[in-house]
Amino acid sequence: MRIAILEDTVKQAYTVAGWLHQAGYECVMRHDGDSFVGMLEHEPADMLLLDWDVPGKCGIEVLKWVRATRDHGEVPIIMLTQHDDETSIVQGLDTGADDYVVKPAREQELVARIRAQMRKYYPENLRERKLKLGRYTLDADARSVLVDGVDGQKLVNLPEREFALAMHFFRHVGCVVTKAELREKIWGESDPKYDATLSTYVSKLRSALQLRSKNGMLISTVYNHGYRMEELLQPGRRQAVARGVRATGPRTALTF
After folding, report:
1. CATH no. for residue 196?
2. Same-domain pairing of 156 and 180
3. Is the pTM of this model over 0.70?
4. Do residues 164 and 56 share a domain?
5. How many domains does the structure of the chain reveal?
6. 1-56 pLDDT tens trace
7. Would you say residue 250 lies in a domain?
8. 78 pairs with which residues across the strands?
9. In this model, does residue 241 exceed pLDDT 60?
10. Which of 121, 155, 178 is the C-terminal boundary of a domain?
11. Which of 74, 81, 158, 189 is most buried as measured by Cβ atoms within 10 A of its Cβ?
12. Dihedral angle at the C-alpha atoms of 112, 113, 117, 118, nearest 10 degrees?
């Protein structure tokens, strides 16, 4: 899901975007109301976070414009502002905001409010909060991974950034994921200074989830590019493919 942030204080905008990246959302930012409206006309978003006092169109004017525009009106909107008086809060909600958060925002509360609005507007996307592939079931709300094994199921709880990394890999099985893409996903910026830390996270993820070839899933390193999550066919399925019988499940490239 893609969240558009209107915030004129650049540092605050990047802080909020970083929180949301870690929670699994994509973010775009603008620092004045006019360019924000221009962006929405060409790049619709799934949710809006609006500051009130910004250059150009203020947050309330942007809110009115969105609600009056047929192509953009059906989208959740949260006001995120320093206006904490009752009159302002009532005005924001009466103008069409779904929620109103007074700065300074708290990370977990803001993410919870965003998820609440996403559940209301996009109930069909609830299933994306859980992802099952092979022996692995990832639960985004619990930040946990359930791993099926010969001795039963094992529950693995991951730190926030490592879980975000795992979700990204499992959602892009078979694809090369660049280091720049992963840096942007985890830290909200693509500075190569994070490469050593990224490598450490990938190593920890491999160990925590036992992402080795014998378990059917593998994270391989693609030299000078990034990484690739691979789903490996089991021996029985390899034999079926070799005999010309179509194997069930997603197609996977084999290397013998």
Report:
1. 1.10.10.10
2. yes
3. no
4. no
5. 2
6. 899 999 999 999 999 999 998 887 889 999 999 999 999 998 889 999 999 999 99
7. no
8. 49, 99
9. no
10. 121
11. 81
12. -30
* CB distance 62 to 36 below 8 Å: yes
The first and second tokens of residue 187, run together, are 């830290």
- φ, ψ for residue 29, nearest 5 deg: -130, 145
**C-alpha neighbours within 13 Å on the C-beta side of residue 155:** 5
- 3 state SS of 155: strand
User: Does residue 82 lie within any of the structural domains?
Assistant: yes
Helix 59-68 / helix 86-95 crossing angle, nearest 10 deg: 20
What residues have CB less than 8 Å from 34, skipping those under 6 apart?
55, 56, 57
146 and 96 housed in the same domain = no
Could you tell me the residue range of the domain that residue 75 belongs to? 2-121
For residue range 197-235, list pLDDT tens digits in order.
999 999 999 999 888 766 678 898 998 889 998 887 554
Domain presence at residue 248 = no
Name the 3-class secondary structure at 30: strand
